[in-house]
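ugh ok fine here u go
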Amino acid sequence: MLVCEGAMGSELAARGVSFRNTAELNLTQPDAILGVHRDYQAAGAQVFQTNTFAGNLLMLERAGLAEQAAAIQTAAVGLAREAIGPEALLALNIGPTGHLPEPYGDLPHAPAVACFRQQLEVMLPLDVDFVLLETFEALEEVEAALEALRELRCQLPVAATMSFSNPQGATMMGVNGQQAAHTLAALGVDIIGANCGDQVGLREALRQMAEVTDRPLMAQPNAGQPELVEGRTAYRQSAEDFGRYAQELLELGVRIIGGCCGTRTAHIQQLARLARAGA
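structure:
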């Protein structure tokens, strides 16, 4: 079992850090990013992600940060490496564009490819070990990112995890676990999985994936269901309950597990405990 780090955005918010876009903090508050990476490593994480989930050109453009895109993306790798050292595994984190791709929305395929290509051109030559495409709802958007990787002749392993918000194990666009596994494997993705979304849906999607693929499975669930507390989104699943849920994922064959929204160092400590126990 490999233990990944936990959430970045919700953890920064819990620490009182304010931001328009989490990726801008790579330039404006680098110590905050260093602190989160270091604390997850101290908790037992072995696999880390650059703080670029919201660091693609279209997401940065929405926050008025397009001109700083390359600097933000480059800084993310440097900060992660400074925090975790040269030996720990580091993923180049690629998130969705923030626009619905055609045919669901108004983002054509070519501009989506160009958006991902800009981020990848900057970050692939840097000190990263693999590429992680995460929290995607539409296969069309994953395909755009993979096309950009092919254009750049990427030689790194690629992981792709989708967000299954439906308890039946389907994304918002209706993609279920089996469909995701079949398509992603056919497109050459090395590691397949699920993150964010609904814990019931995530587990069901991974169950479906395990039935149809022998690719390594990865999961990064939220810390339970979000609740609105005093006007703010909160995740209240205890670290112990999160650990028990992770054990269920291990029993499905998942071997790479971290945390998404609401997870904190205590949740990652529970994953590290499972890893030490020989999971």
